[in-house]
Sequence to fold (637 residues):
Amino acid sequence: MSGRPIGGTGGGIRRIAARVPLPEWAAIVIAAVALAIGPAAVLGYGRWASRDVITIRALQSGYEPKTVYLTAGVPAHFRLISEDVTHGFAVDGLDVRVDDLLPGHAVDITFTPREAGTYDFTCTRYCGTNHGLMFGQIIVRPTQLPQR
Amino acid sequence: MSVENRPTKAADVGAAAPALPAVRPEVILGAIPLASRFELTRISLVRRLLRSRWTTFLPTAANLFLFVIILLAGVVGTPVGNANIAIVFIWILWWSALMLLLVPFGSRIWCGLCPLPVLGEWLQRRAMVQRGGRPTGRAWKWPKRLRNMWLVNGVFLGVAVFSGIITTRPWATVALLGTIMVLSTGLFLLYERRTFCRYLCPVGGFLGLYANFAALEVRPKSAAVCVGHKEKECILGSAAGYGCPWLEQPTNLKRNTYCGMCFECFRTCSKENMGLFLRPFGTDLLVESHRGPDESWKAFIMLGAAAAYSATMMGPWGTLKDWANVRSFGGWALFAGGLVALLLVGLPALHGAFAWLSWRLAGRPVPLRRVFVNFSYHLVPLGLLAWIGFSFAILLPNGSYIPRILSDPFGWGWNLFGTAHLAWTPVLTAWLPLLQAASLLLGFVYSLEIAWKIARQTFKGSREAARAVIPQVVLLGGVTAAFLWLFVG
Ligand SMILES: [Cu+2]
Fold:
């Protein structure tokens, strides 16, 4: 089983495949898991596990995204992440305020907007010359109730 | 300085003086005989493991998986270093593991598990776990003039001047690792076997030199068996495995420098004559053959780099930190120029001055060049233990990032294993100065021991050796004091 040439010149894929011994097939599968399937599974699982989380990134150049859409009466899960320095996050008109948004420490918050409308959010920490640019909007749409 | 054909010079270097029975049998630290060995391959499980090709494949594949995650994290993950697996796993976990465990206890075991060259090696062999047939690629031989550590020294320096960026920005770490992987894959297709790992890998050089200190070795069990065995399967390969991928002659292995712990020779040797041995630390530093100035400079570079990184990362000098982190081009140029000057010229000149003193005090019985080269090898124990002290200072305060990063490798707020919200907890940091001082002291004592043994090797008489070692004691004491001041002062 050992010492046999693997691959080769002539012949189709089937002929090459027939010449690849079983342990080598196992190795190919394991390598495929290591190189692609495994990492894809990690990415997929992580994204799936946080599927209803709205991630807001705080950078010295502003928030990302700058506009977030919510529905009145539906709980919203926010994940705040600073990518550079300490920022803050406060929403005017909603009871949401985070002052210590440290770089590398995600802050998860959950709140339920009661009334439709437009709410501004800003940074509560002076974070550099672009601090004034750190704002965004949460647009809360009315709950879609069946018309009576 | 030419370093070609160094092996042949072994014969003309004076061996330990036979007229002095007082130092025989050679013992390390007055307790452990230098020749004492424990053969791990006497354990049948170890023997079976080393003969299996999966023993190399599976850990490498696992590392390859981690490596792909790290690449991804560098590209799409958070730019915040300590929240990104690329920084935490490479510069906190891997680098500390190399210094604290893998190199001292496993020699170049990392090279056997390294994921960076495996794509190239698999392509070259047209096989992953089985013994492949006809190899692909050109299988060129590396130019003779480059068969030494000089190029590796240069590549290491080229990386070291950017250390401030590489060790803090995930994208830079990943750019470096990605470059190594692409470059190595290309070189595997052009040059024979593991030419890349041996002569170009920036990590390989230091692993090679410091592996000589390691407590683990691969050696033939009996020289007589090898002499009588004409097939030389370990060099040429057999149906069971490849000829030494590291271009070594396993039959004639004298030091760990270029043994990459791939265990191919355990698979090829039909006489079962290869052994894995535990041995006293520092054994190969006393092997006189194969020494050369390329390795001396590697020793200076590693010792100096330990000092420079300690100063920039832990020292109280904010300006130096800014320079290293490339806050401004001018500052960085100063840092880079200073670092290169220190490592290539400053330390070698300092060492040269003390080697000259030793040479003069001993009455100049041997060429100065030999004194210079031989006396650079006792910088290795102190260098490694300085790196160990440095690693404690990285690992103890930052180690708690590791369980956190496992749950959130990209810094996206994930919690895969429920460990993402563990608070940052420095571990045993109160003991840090003590640990560092103890490491340095151990390195100092071990270096003194090796220095004395090298002096006895280099100079025929014990009086000459005793006079020659005095400047070395002063130098080692000075270097230890300097590190002590950097670490705890
Ligand atoms: Cu801000």
Observations:
- The radius of gyration of chain B is 23 Å.
- The beta strands of chain B are 27-28, 32-33, 38-39, 216-220, 237-238, 241-242, 274-278.
